From TrEMBL:
GO terms for molecular function: ATP binding; ATP hydrolysis activity. Keywords: ATP-binding, Nucleotide-binding, Transport. One of its GO terms (cellular component) is plasma membrane. CDD domains: ABC_Mj1267_LivG_branched (cd03219). Residues 2-245 form the ABC transporter domain. InterPro entries: AAA+_ATPase, ABC_AA/LPS_Transport, ABC_transporter-like_ATP-bd, ABC_transporter-like_CS, P-loop_NTPase. The keyword NADP does not apply. PROSITE patterns: ABC_TRANSPORTER_1, ABC_TRANSPORTER_2. The keyword Transport applies. This is ABC transporter ATP-binding protein. Pfam families: ABC_tran.
Length: 250
């Protein structure tokens, strides 16, 4: 289980995340919501290691990971999606996925050649490509894919690492109307895996409503509410934050 304990970070005089204590259980998708500037991205950065806390802790299965690098946290099972820097644009789609499969297996060394020689790795790569509907794009360079296809490839790379915690930051941003349901379907499938915990930062209410088992509300860096979607959606602070979106009837 992932937990934060009084997690706090200050930038100069500004407290971006303020004493947030929260548990993220396996088998649950938790949506982190709040108005612009509430601290959602900073909270994600604290969990995945891009930012270190001023005080407080992040623990995974009881172990303090607050001072580990992002790479070390990835090895422990924290998988954060949608950082396009994860892609190798000059390699093919298949090569990208194979490298991720291999990275998990930590064989090291001449990664690509080893990966290509391994039938089992090939099968796993094919399965992942099929999961993200890129099976016909395997020979294309990652750089040649559309924005939405690149994001699907990033999901495949993330899945290849088999994290215990998946973190998605606005996963459908910039996707076409045809592409968005694909990535949401994938997240929904991951959500059904009882051994995984999923954290989702999302502004779109329809996405939150269709995927979230639990909602955590941040406001001015503080955790101001948490609970089941039906309870939390009715709170005034959430109504105010999402003014203009149809909260009552969703
Ligand atoms: N590196 C930084 N240095 C200084 N201030 C920062 C830094 N990172 C974030 N902040 C500030 O912390 C606050 C929280 O920002 P954050 O991006 O986490 O909010 P958010 O909820 O993700 O907002 P949005 O929904 O607009 O993405 C903001 O006031 C922001 O300006």
């Amino acid at each position: 289980m992932l937990e934060t304990h009084d997690l706090t970070v200050r930038f100069g005089g500004h407290t971006a995340v303020d004493a947030v204590s929260c548990r993220f259980h396996t088998g649950e998708l938790t949506a982190i919501v709040g108005p612009n500037g509430a601290g959602k991205t900073t909270f994600f950065n604290l969990v995945s290691g891009q930012v270190f806390p001023t005080s407080g802790r992040v623990t995974l299965s009881g172990a303090d990971i607050s001072r580990l690098s992002p790479a070390a946290r990835t090895r422990r099972g924290i998988g954060r999606g949608f950082q396009q820097t994860n892609l190798f644009p000059g390699l093919t789609v298949t090569e990208n996925v194979r490298l991720a499969v291999q990275a998990r297996q930590r064989k090291g060394g001449r990664l690509l050649r080893l990966a290509q020689s391994d039938k089992q790795m090939g099968r796993e790569t094919d399965a992942l490509l099929s999961d993200v509907r890129l099976e016909r794009m395997g020979r294309r360079l990652a750089a040649e894919l559309s924005h939405g296809e690149q994001r699907m490839l990033e999901v495949a790379l993330l899945m290849a690492l088999q994290p215990s915690v998946y973190m998605f930051d606005e996963p459908t941003a910039g996707m076409s109307a045809e592409e968005a349901p694909l990535v949401l379907g994938l997240i929904d499938a991951l959500r059904r895996d009882a051994s995984k915990s999923i954290l989702l930062v999302e502004h779109k209410l329809d996405v939150i409503r269709s995927l979230a088992d639990r909602i955590v509300v941040l406001h001015n860096g503080k955790l101001v509410a948490q609970g089941a979607p039906d309870e939390v959606m009715g709170l005034k602070i959430v109504q105010d934050a999402y003014m203009g979106q149809d909260l009552v009837n969703v």
